[in-house]
Amino acid sequence: MSEPGSRATVLFVDDEPLVLQGLQRMLRPERDRWDMHFAASAEEALRLMAESPFDAVVSDLRMPGMDGAEFLACVMERSPQTVRIVLSGEMDRGLIFKTVQCAHQYLAKPCQPDALKSALERALALRRMMGDRRLKSLLPQLSSLPSLPALYFEILSEIQAPNASFKRVGELIARDVSLSAKMLQIVNSAFFGLPRRIADIAEAVSLLGFDTVKGLVLSVKVFSQFEVGRIPARWLEELWRHSSQVGLFARGIALSEKLPRRSLDEAFTAGLLHDVGKLIFAQNFPDAAVEMIASAATRPLWEVESERFGVSHAELGAYLLSLWGIGEEVVAALAHHHRPPEAGTPGRVVGVVYAANALEHRLGPGDAPGAPAAALGLEVCRRLNIAGRISAWEAICRKLSAEERLHA
Ligand SMILES: [Fe+2]
Ligand SMILES: [Fe+2]
User: Which ligand is nearest to the CA of 367?
Assistant: First the structure.
């Protein structure tokens, strides 16, 4: 694994010499920042990995000898911190799903140079986070990190297909009854301001757009995959209510600020997933999580977590999302939803999500049982450049919440 600050090491694996040559040509301009290696088989790739581990591997799926799914499983075992990306023209869903547990990201061939570069950039942004010593020491203790939900992969491969259709994405979602119900509930909330009630998933998909749908599917499935175990079910239910409301608040605020469509989707996704790190703590350290939730009755949970583990659910959630290849704005919004970055001016989505979370604590029926409301710190608002906007944003969220209650 390369040191943060040095060139990141990336290994490409494909049995097709033309594909490897194409990648080599396409990525030549990136030589200064990435140290790239190319292997014509999984076996050769494993030999190279034995000499020195890589920061990221980008692998084809269908290859003679060891296939991509087996290869990525080996990488996961031998070098768990290597980011694993699939780049494949595979249409066989069975083979795609075999890799779900072992791949962090999935890209469909043919892949535009920009899409590949930005997927790699996002994945390698992890190295910056890994420079954070506290996170580095916590990661080896995590036995399970939620994997990307299989349905998310399926929808992603449909969306990335050249003839992607709302109808087919709608059909995939409709197979999952509880996801469909949650999705219709959110689309029909007052926050989306749609003129009539939508009952058809394909129509919901076309109204929301693929990016909003992706965020929604990801968060609903991550919550439903979670095993409650020792954590009170009521806590999990409340966390989902709070998270979906923060997603809607963040989207409503972004809309009122006339931010571009892309920022609306980012604000929504980040709002829905902002507390996902709490699930990671609960899953990996159930005893500690129960204790931390209890002691958070008098002070913010993120403070209790930081004291005990060195990092809070904010950084842990951001780490998971960057591993999944979610865009940098969303990752930054997760990382800073309680504390602004120490340096630099964060993007607008960061401020929107920070405010949406704090406003939901203020306006909603209450946080996870016993937790005190997150304060809207004036100093934080100044640093995020949103101090002058808070009262307008609060008015919007109040109005929408009131409409929502009438709606329900
Ligand atoms: Fe939080
Ligand atoms: Fe929150």
Answer: 2
Q: Are 82 and 109 in contact (CB under 8 A)?
A: no
Domain 8-131 has CATH 3.40.50.2300: yes
Tokens for 40, please give them: 């014509």
**Residue 12, SS3?**
strand
CB 294 within 8 A of CB 372: no
Q: What is the pLDDT of residues 123-145, one digit of tens each?
A: 776 656 655 667 767 776 776 66
- How far, in Å, from the CA of 349 to the mean position of ligand 1? 15
Contacts of 41 (CB under 8 A, 6+ apart): 13, 15, 63, 64, 65, 66
pTM value? 0.78
What's the CA-to-centroid distance between 272 and ligand 2, angstroms? 9
pLDDT score recorded for residue 103: 77
Q: Confirm or reject CATH 1.10.3210.10 for domain 150-407, answering yes or no.
A: yes
| pLDDT for position 110 | 78
For residue 225, the CA-to-ligand 1 centroid distance in Å is 20
